[in-house]
Amino acid sequence: MANRITQLFQIEHPIIQAGMIWTSGWRLASAASNSGILGLIGAGSMYPEVLREHIQKCKKATNKPFGVNVPMLYPNIQEIMDILVEEEVKIVFTSAGNPKTWTSWLKDRGITVVHVVSSVKFALKAQEAGVDAVVAEGFEAGGHNGRDETTTFTLIPMVKEQINIPLIAAGGIATGRGMLAAMVLGADGVQVGSRFVACTESSAHDAFKQTVVNTKEGDTQLTLKELAPVRLIKNKFYNEVQELYKLAPTREQLKELLGRARAKKGMFEGDLEDGELEIGQIAGLIHDIKPVANIVETMLQEFEDAKRQIGSL
Questions:
Q1: Total domain count for the chain?
Q2: CA 236, CA 273: separation in Å to the nearest integer?
Q3: Could you tell me the residue range of the domain that residue 252 belongs to?
Q4: I need a labelling partner for 103 at 20 to 30 A (CA). Which of 21, 84, 116, 237 fits?
Q5: Confidence band (pLDDT; 50, 70, 90) for 19?
């Protein structure tokens, strides 16, 4: 399936495994790349030297292209970027910041740069900054999200109308049918997160993976917009957040409740009550935990089946 995304990343299929906090280590990224898609290491949950270790292990586990997702809001961002160059990472996805800050610096060092956006406005800013592609992520997505709550179904065609660089759709995509729908709307490829949380190679805690499998429609909610919008599975911590909202809390009060390492506690350590459990709405369609290769194979088969069905309409 050759198109602008497969050519840009030198991969077989236009699917990107999202670089997610606490779930996307070298095992997941290398398994994804070995399956013919683009695997991403999630740098957001890693200290610089831990990131270096994951990059080195990923290189040994795959000879296929892989990349690193870097949220730009961390204080040691210069150290992280230096490690990416030293370890000769060829593909970097940036998020949670201004793409102008690092795009030219990375591209001057021969790195392909993709930026994650949640609106047409920021897609245009990313294109102006010189990125090679954008990921447009809809409101359905897990983890941190846009404040405007624009759904993938409306965001993708609006972004497509305004930019000329390759477009990757994200948010609510976990099946081949979802992939085809996104590409019909104008995407050149898709980024998949939640489906890869519930896979064998994910570094998420087994208890969290099983919780994702058990999640149904309506079990997640976007919240904490005053800090950084995040979609959470409803649990004890989520309920505490909602109770606090009844008191019209300040940002400082929300920060105090959130505390530190709340996402690590939930997704990596398996504290299903007091931890932050980030996942997308599409969790309602995730019914099992299986290897990355099987997930990719199933998605591609569903994609082809859906194409044939559309042809008969």
A1: 2
A2: 5
A3: 216-282
A4: 21
A5: very high
